[in-house]
């Protein structure tokens, strides 16, 4: 998830930290990292990368400096969400009104599997970024297929006018829908529709949207999520509803460092034009599609506002 960060960091953190803990950021198999800054700390909310039936909880990680990380285990657990049983995926987090809202996918929703429980995108809430989070709605926020999009890989975007949007979708389709202010549902668009397709060319999953210098940057992952060619591309528009013009791929495997680099989020260091991309990748020689680890790199824009290709590092 991209955060245009409202939190205030101490003066010492107002510039890009000179280094990070190196890659991977912390031990363990994790994917789909959502990065945020809360309470003067960097936070990462990843998917626990394991077989679907074992993905029954989410952990979080916090750091004051991107070097030292503290693990917060089981911030959300399927035991606290009656409709969620497995495949808890790709958290997205928003702080609003003193609460923390964690949007998550569960059950790998698939209408062609009628014997499996329905699922989709849910919302959990807590008073603290470390949780414990509890189910907010008692049912999925999105539990249907709209415009062909599987209800997974949610991202929450706050526009400059204070409106919140849910952007999500697997199966190569991406939707945007305006969230109600209390995140209990959606506000229809002017034409009466709730879900608008904004699928850019090449899109597979893992969408993300942020604004920089008046332009909307749409980023996503493409390729197969367990394979070496998983990667990140982006498009640009003057509107959050597109149309988005594909600009190209900016993150991909480096056969000398790691493969399958994708499903990322972005951090803008508050008060600066300094950015990080936080993503997962497979270690070299990996034989298990679930062996995904969370990494971080600097992300730079050129003078025209184009995102420069990101270099995979180990330090
Ligand atoms: O981690 C589970 C799934 O794998 C995510 O929802 C996809 O984006 C892919 O990263």
TrEMBL record:
GO terms for molecular function: hydrolase activity, hydrolyzing O-glycosyl compounds. One of its GO terms (biological process) is xylan catabolic process. Residues 1-13 form the signal peptide. Pfam families: Glyco_hydro_43. The keyword Transmembrane helix does not apply. Keywords: Carbohydrate metabolism, Glycosidase, Hydrolase, Polysaccharide degradation, Signal, Xylan degradation. The record marks 153 as: Important for catalytic activity, responsible for pKa modulation of the active site Glu and correct orientation of both the proton donor and substrate. InterPro entries: Glyco_hydro_43, Glyco_hydro_beta-prop_sf, Glycosyl_Hydrlase_43_Enz. Belongs to the glycosyl hydrolase 43 family. This is Family 43 glycosylhydrolase. It comes from Hymenobacter ginkgonis.
